[in-house]
Amino acid sequence: RMETDCNPMEMPNNTGFEEDPDYGDFEGTDVKDMRLEAEAVVNDVLFAVSNMFVSKTLPCAEDVAYINVETRERNRYCLELTEAGLRVVAYDFDQTDDRLQTPYHETVYSLLDSLSPAYREVFGNALLQRLEALKKESQS
Fold first, then answer.
1. Measured between alpha carbons, how far is residue 19 from residues 9, 22, 29 in Å?
2. Is residue 74 included in any domain, yes or no?
3. Whole domain around residue 102: which residue ranges?
4. How would DSSP label each residue in 86-117?
5. What span, in angstroms and rounded, lies between the C-alpha atoms of 77 and 58?
6. Residues in domain GSKIP (predicted)?
7. Does residue 3 lie within any of the structural domains?
8. Which CATH number is 129's domain given?
9. pTM of this prediction?
10. Handedness of CA 129, 131, 135, 140 (dihedral sign)
11. Residue spans of alpha helices (H) in 1-140
């Protein structure tokens, strides 16, 4: 089953941060926790890459998270996720290189599409299978 990007409007109001003393400063403010956003991004496209996970080494904050991804071509990247979008910040896991000036991508799909032909193929095939399944459902 394919999932779409997480819609913040569908998120439950009670996220559990209210009970957590570490998140006391955020009470009543409308912040988007980038770690949660990063987990949603990983869950969306994990099937189409070799490995992908939110970095446990680099600091996550309410405005930034880092995602490690290994493409099916065995290339490793560290991605930065912010309100501006996603971009490559290093060519290895858990690294950032300030000299890299890579463009932001609005979605993880367009970023991976630009990095990995194998991702494009796997994602396209999954999309075709889903369309075929929908077609069969509508015919029955």
1. 21, 9, 15
2. yes
3. 34-138
4. EEEEESSTT---TT--PPPBSSHHHHHHHH-H
5. 13
6. 34-134
7. no
8. 3.30.2280.10
9. 0.73
10. positive
11. 34-45, 108-115, 117-139
